[in-house]
Task: inverse folding
């Protein structure tokens, strides 16, 4: 299937359109909220919450006896929240480290959830089949009302984010200080965490318990590489997340039978890899290039400074010297000399070189410049 | 005698079962520049955090100008230990300083022109104006310290608590900071500083508190900054020669 054909299909085919929209919205809201988790260094939080949601799904099914996705997600929400507040409780009341508390709740709830799932599967209830889709997600089961629910939560989340922007920002940066300014940090914290739980629960149907945290973290981690502004980071994370959803759906729709959730996560992962390599300021590639360029510039400057030392000893700066003198200087090569000529710092005539006016000024400013360049 | 700016009564604080601060009584007069000295782990940071309500003490009370801290919050500014935040956070120097205005703005309201102006003034005061748009991770340790100081200055408080503002700064920055602190004192503000360099205590400060889990002594530097108190606080025989 070629691309234009596929795009046409997205707009005409009801199911495909629903899934594409759903995964896009989900990706966006996860990216947005994932930024908070990444900046607070709570990478494991998403994992803990999504795993903590599993028993809720099973219990909701046991109580209601039906597989209505809204009821099940409500169950997931309740047990996700319970898990989250237990984690908070453990961290504040005992002196266990945060990752210990997270790991503890994660395995406890997930184990319990798996236990319930196996128990349900042994029941003679025809309805039970397919509950395990919450483990790895099944985007194909998304219906329009699911998408509406996601869009509503995303909208509310966005409004709250705008409203409490400054409070979120300062809490992320310096929680203790925020407290001294009189803000109720607990409230802000609970607000953020509740939204993260909501986003995770909404994603369970599509991406599943196991991969949900990657959905939360990957777009944000990728976005962090491209910018030094919190606002832009969150917007970028939302865009990366949405694109992961759209691309992931497209790939799984055109390659029959590839399940959507894992592909979305893989695409998000590719965003991360690309960002870590290619982003201009923090990326590995440009860091390396900058390093090489700096070293070359330094080499050039050192040669120039050396020539400046020699030229200084003569009355006229344009007094020619033989190229041979430069052999005494370690960093000197033919090509550095040529580069200095190209930059018009040095004049070369046969085997004699001399500094130009420009080269002389540049050389005498080298050290001053290094300090003022810092600005 | 001046008014009492900060009064601490019977303060006891514990992270676990063992208190790290025992029964601290403290009266800090208005307008002093006070050093809190004591060895690592003495509870200096803990004392400041408890006074500021960041930590909950198991016993005791704190009052600021005779009223509870909660009511007087706007009078108090805090400079945390520099290492307490992640300097790789995506924001600029100006933005961090602007955070000092958030308290007076209250919930939801965003900083405007007025707030930006006072943030720029504070940056100017600490000599960091040329760096206002710098990403904070690209500042040196001393520059980050100045940014924290500027953020507290913006609060325009009466009482300043500073946790090791001289940590890792060079001589120039140290002088710049101490001059700002002295200026604050001149304006009758009260400045409380956790300080590690005992040599400079007599030169910089006029008031001192010795702390090591318990309060050892508190008072004017010229009266109580002596070998006896230093030995009691640091546990080893201390000999400082205070040169006049
Ligand atoms: N979050 C914490 N949990 C448990 N114990 C803590 C915590 N923070 C500090 N402590 C303990 O409380 C005591 C006092 O610590 P505090 O940080 O107040 O010391 P300090 O005087 O500021 O030391 P430093 O000079 O190293 O900054 C120390 O023994 C420390 O181990
Ligand atoms: Mg300390």
Result:
């Amino acid at each position: 299937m070629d691309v234009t054909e596929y795009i046409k299909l997205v707009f005409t085919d009801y199911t495909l359109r629903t899934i594409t929209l759903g995964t896009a919205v989900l990706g966006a809201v996860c990216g947005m909220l994932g930024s908070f988790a990444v900046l607070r260094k709570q990478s494991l939080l998403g994992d803990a919450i999504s795993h903590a949601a599993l028993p809720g799904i099973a219990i909701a099914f046991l109580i209601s006896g039906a597989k209505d996705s809204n009821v099940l997600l409500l169950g997931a929400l309740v047990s996700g929240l319970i898990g989250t507040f237990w984690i908070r409780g453990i961290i504040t009341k005992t002196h266990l480290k945060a990752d210990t508390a997270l790991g503890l709740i994660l395995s406890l709830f997930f184990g319990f959830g798996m236990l319930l799932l196996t128990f349900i599967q042994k029941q003679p209830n025809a309805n039970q089949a397919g509950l395990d889709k919450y483990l790895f997600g099944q985007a194909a089961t998304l219906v329009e009302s699911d998408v509406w629910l996601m869009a509503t939560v995303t909208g509310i989340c966005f409004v709250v984010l705008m409203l409490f922007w400054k409070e979120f920002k300062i809490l992320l940066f310096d929680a203790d200080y925020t407290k001294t300014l009189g803000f109720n940090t607990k409230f802000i914290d609970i607000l953020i965490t509740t939204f993260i739980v909501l986003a995770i629960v909404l994603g369970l149907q599509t991406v599943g318990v196991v991969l949900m945290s990657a959905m939360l973290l990957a777009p944000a981690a990728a976005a962090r590489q491209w910018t030094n502004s919190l606002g832009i980071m969150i917007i970028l994370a939302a865009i990366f997340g949405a694109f992961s959803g759209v691309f992931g759906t497209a790939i799984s729709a055109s390659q029959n039978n590839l399940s959507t959730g894992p592909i979305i996560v893989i695409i998000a992962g590719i965003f991360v890899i690309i960002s870590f390599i290619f982003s201009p300021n923090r990326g590995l590639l440009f860091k390396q290039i900058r390093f090489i360029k700096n070293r070359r510039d330094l080499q050039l400057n050192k040669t120039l400074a050396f020539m400046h030392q020699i030229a200084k000893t003569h009355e006229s700066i344009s007094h020619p010297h033989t190229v041979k003198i430069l052999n005494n200087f370690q960093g000197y090569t033919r090509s550095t000399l040529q580069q200095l000529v190209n930059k018009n710092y040095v004049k070369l005539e046969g085997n004699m070189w001399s500094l130009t006016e420009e080269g002389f000024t540049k050389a005498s400013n080298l050290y001053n410049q290094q300090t003022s360049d810092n600005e | 005698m001046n008014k009492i700016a900060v009064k601490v009564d019977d303060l006891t604080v514990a992270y676990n079962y063992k208190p790290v601060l025992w029964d601290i009584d403290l009266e800090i007069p208005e307008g002093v520049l006070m050093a809190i000295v004591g060895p690592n782990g003495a509870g200096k940071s803990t004392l400041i955090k408890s006074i500021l309500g960041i930590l909950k003490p198991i016993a005791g009370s704190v009052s600021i100008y005779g009223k509870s801290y909660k009511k007087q919050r706007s009078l108090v500014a805090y400079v945390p230990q520099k290492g307490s935040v992640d300097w790789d956070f995506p924001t600029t120097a100006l933005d961090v300083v602007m955070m000092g205005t958030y308290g007076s703005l209250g919930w939801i309201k965003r900083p405007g022109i007025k707030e930006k102006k006072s943030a720029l003034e504070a940056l100017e005061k600490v000599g960091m104006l040329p760096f206002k748009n710098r990403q904070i991770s690209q500042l040196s340790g001393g520059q980050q310290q100045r940014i924290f100081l500027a953020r507290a200055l913006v609060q325009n408080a009466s009482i300043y608590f500073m946790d090791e503002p001289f940590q890792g700064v060079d001589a120039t920055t140290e002088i710049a900071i101490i001059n700002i602190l002295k200026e604050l004192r001149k304006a009758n503000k009260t400045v409380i500083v956790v300080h590690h360099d005992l040599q400079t205590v007599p030169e910089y400060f006029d008031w001192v508190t010795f702390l090591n889990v318990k309060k050892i002594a508190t008072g004017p530097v010229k009266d109580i900054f002596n070998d006896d108190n230093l030995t009691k606080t640091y546990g080893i025989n201390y000999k400082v020669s205070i040169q006049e």
Remarks:
- Chain B has a mean pLDDT of 90.
